[in-house]
Write a structure and sequence with these properties.
Elements: H1 3-21, E1 24-26, H2 28-38, H3 40-54, E2 66-83, E3 89-111, H4 115-181, H5 187-221, E4 230-232, H6 244-254, H7 256-276, E5 282-296, E6 303-316, H8 324-390, H9 396-430
Parallel strand pairs: 1-4
Antiparallel strand pairs: 2-3, 3-5, 5-6
Helix pairs in contact: 1-4, 2-4, 3-4, 4-5, 4-7, 4-9, 6-8, 7-8, 8-9
Length: 436
């Protein structure tokens, strides 16, 4: 590449660096941190996890006594009459009657066939399920952030490639005009160079639009103002040391979807325990302190009152309920079988996804090396073609072909890196092993 092209490239780099200084440089670590703090779906999942944790109490499981205070006050005004057995009668208009009852009652289920203990264990498993769902949400959202971030890196690299081709197209147009001015080229060569330059500028504008829209999407994932401007890093680092066996082992331990299915099986088993508890008697202790008072304007007794302590117990045993107990136990056992089937299904799906994604990952790693070599060859070919075009020993069509080959090679190399990164992210997401 000659001195003028190098000079133009340096000028372009200077302006790009000046623009970069005015923008926030957002790293992938910072993007993930912002997403963990701001993303709406992660916030909702965190709240749901806290709800599950809050529900784990012995009171919610039914182990603690309950105390209830009550007050009842009834009043009436009536026209009343009474006829006694001896034939005498009495009557009173606007007779006032009132009664007042208040007190505190205490109830405590001391035995219910161990249902309360199974319920407490079930609440703990539901908390674990909430944690697994939170982890799943975080993995999905962090995966989206990674994909969107490295898409921006890829598009930024493509912008750089299009900037380079415009510099070359400008140089070509200048050479064509110079040759035309001294009579060594036709006007057609100048027009072709101008058309190709315009085409490159259109492609650059389209790429800038795509780049801007990708920024807006990433800002959405980060739950912040879509107008916030920033710049991402200029390189994609792909972990090329992933091993399928290691990923499979991690997925069996850490994949949140599989973990949720295993927890669901445990919840179903605890539900069966609660259903079986209905076969045993239920014993409930009761106690209370009550006060009652009543007044009547007509009758043998004008007022009564009572107060005191009451206590006792209540025991019940289900002897026959129309075979519903048998039916409920059968349904609970079938639900356990369904969770076991779901675990087997999820294991198969997970292993299939891992195998497919890993094969894609290996292919993309090979494509990176291949496209890197292609870019180097295309660059060397462009430099040779440019030298030949400068001295007029090559046609404009051949020059344009070499130029486009170079741009396409850079774009393909960028795409190969991005696709390999997506494969890496997908594998780590399946293994539940994205670092954030």
């Amino acid at each position: 590449m000659n001195t003028k092209i190098l000079f133009h490239s340096l000028i372009l780099c200077f302006f790009c660096l000046t623009s970069m200084q005015a923008q926030e440089v957002l790293t992938i670590e910072e993007a993930m941190k912002i997403a963990l703090e701001n993303n709406f779906e992660i916030k909702i999942a965190k709240n749901n996890s806290v709800i599950s944790e809050t529900n784990v109490t012995i009171g919610n499981a039914g182990m603690l006594p309950t105390a209830t205070a009550s007050v009842t006050d009834n009043n009436s005004i009536q026209n009343s009459s009474q006829t006694r057995q001896d034939g005498t009668s009495t009557s009173l208009n606007n007779a006032k009657n009132n009664s007042l009852n208040y007190g505190v009652s205490l109830g405590w289920t001391v035995f219910d066939g161990m249902r309360m203990f199974a319920r407490l264990d079930q609440l703990k498993e539901l908390q674990k399920l909430g944690d697994a769902e939170l982890k799943s949400t975080i993995l999905v959202k962090i995966g989206q952030v990674n994909a969107a971030y490295y898409d921006l890196v890829q598009q930024q690299q493509q912008l750089s490639a299009l900037d380079t081709t415009i510099v070359i197209s400008n140089q070509r147009l200048t050479l064509a005009k110079n040759r035309f001015s001294i009579g060594k080229a036709s006007k057609l060569e100048v027009l072709n160079a101008q058309v190709d330059l315009n085409s490159d500028q259109v492609a650059l504008l389209r790429q800038k639009e795509s780049y801007a829209n990708a920024k807006i999407l990433l800002n959405q994932y980060l739950a912040r103002d879509p107008k916030i401007d920033f710049k991402v890093t200029d390189f994609v680092t792909v972990d090329n040391k992933l091993v399928l066996a290691d990923l499979t082992n991690l997925a069996q331990k850490q994949n949140p979807v599989l973990e949720s299915q295993i927890i669901n099986k445990r919840i179903a088993e605890l539900q069966l325990k609660q259903v079986r508890a209905n076969r045993y008697p239920t014993l409930r202790l009761t106690s209370g302190y009550n006060f009652a008072e009543s007044e009547s304007s007509l009758g043998f007794t004008s007022s009564t009152s009572s107060k005191g302590l009451n206590y006792g117990f209540n025991a019940t045993l289900n002897i026959f309920d129309g075979f519903n107990q048998h039916r409920n136990e059968k349904v609970a056992k079938l639900q356990i079988q369904n969770t076991e089937i779901a675990i087997e299904q999820q294991n198969l799906i997970l292993n299939t996804q891992l195998s497919t994604a890993f094969q894609t990952y290996l292919t993309n790693l090979e494509l990176i090396d291949l496209e890197e070599d292609n870019e180097a060859i295309a660059k060397q070919n462009l430099e040779i073609t440019l030298d030949k075009f400068r001295i007029g020993t090559i046609t404009t069509i051949d020059f344009r072909t070499a130029q486009l080959n170079y741009v396409n090679a850079k774009v393909r190399y960028s795409n190969a890196q991005y696709e390999a990164k997506l494969s890496e992210i997908a594998l780590k997401e399946l293994a539940g092993n994205i670092n954030f």
